[in-house]
Specification:
The N terminus is likely disordered. This protein has a two-stranded antiparallel sheet. It is built from 2 helices and 2 strands. The two termini are 21 Å apart. The chain has one domain. By secondary structure, it is α+β, with helices and mostly antiparallel strands.
């Protein structure tokens, strides 16, 4: 399995069946937060199979919420899902 890790990158568009999935943009997490009244949102996506990968995007309404969402996302990535740590 390939682990795809993006940091501070916002890309637009949705993946289509048969194509490599794209990173989930922060703007999508922001839209979820605004639509449903949340201060912090964490979105985890998986493409299963030989060409599979995982992606995690976080959003916080304020700088403080952003930091908390990022720390929670890091915990989930590294402690729960076993992603390797990288020093980007």
């Amino acid at each position: 399995m390939v682990l795809l890790l993006w940091k501070d990158e916002v890309l637009s568009g949705l993946g289509k069946e048969g194509l490599m999935p794209k990173p989930i943009p922060i703007s999508a997490a922001k839209k979820i937060a605004e639509s449903y009244g949340y201060d912090q949102v964490i979105v985890f996506g998986r493409k299963v199979g030989d060409d599979g990968l995982e992606h995690l995007t976080t959003y916080g309404k304020t700088k403080e919420h952003c930091g908390i969402a990022a720390k929670t996302g890091d915990f989930l990535k590294h402690k729960i899902m076993g992603w390797p740590k990288n020093d980007l």
